[in-house]
Amino acid sequence: MSGTSTQPRPAQTETVPDGHRPATAATASPPSTADLIRRATEQLSTLVRDEIALARAEMTEKLAHAGKGAGLFGGAGVVSLYGVFGVLTAAVLLLAKVMPAWGAALAVGGALLLLAGIMAVAGRGQVKKASPPVPEAAVKGVRTDIETVAAAVEDRGHQR
């Protein structure tokens, strides 16, 4: 005897990546309801994770652009502030030629406070109109996924 056995070895079935064995002639029955539910749950959780990742990526990109824009607006605000100081000084000096200097400064300051109040009220109205930022592509993807799953469940129910 050379150490080899003449008994037939049991057939080894290969496992596919999703953890299921391929159907053979002996096991060609449709998957059970429990298997289908387990697979649907796994696929749904994967789908939800992917949609969350998409939303995170979309919001990161939007926030990066918003941050750059805010920085540029801030820089523009500082530079324009210096320009406004120069113009206001000129306005006060011009009015000081026809009235006392303190009266000219008071008139310019009062006009600026009135303008600031009007701008604050208008800005508050615009902020109220603004909608919260929403990751639009991710929301659209989730809606499509929900519709697809609902249609599949409905089709599965009609087949029985």
List the helices and strands and how they pair.
Blueprint: H1 33-95, H2 101-129, H3 136-159
Question: In words, what does this structure look like?
Answer:
By secondary structure, the protein is mostly helical. It is built from three helices and no strands. Helix 1 runs antiparallel to helix 2 and helix 1 (33-95) packs antiparallel against helix 3 (136-159).
Task: Briefly summarize what is shown.
The chain is 72% helix and 0% strand. It is mainly α. It has one domain (33-159).
Relative strand content: under 5%
Distance between the termini: 58 Å
- Class by SSE composition: mainly alpha
Alpha carbon gyration radius: 36 Å
Helices, by number, come to 3
The number of distinct structural domains comes to 1
Outline: rod-shaped
Series of H and E elements:
HHH
- Summarize the biggest pleated sheet: none
Overall average pLDDT: 81
Instruction: Bin the helical content.
Output: over 70%
Which key phrases capture this entry?
mainly alpha
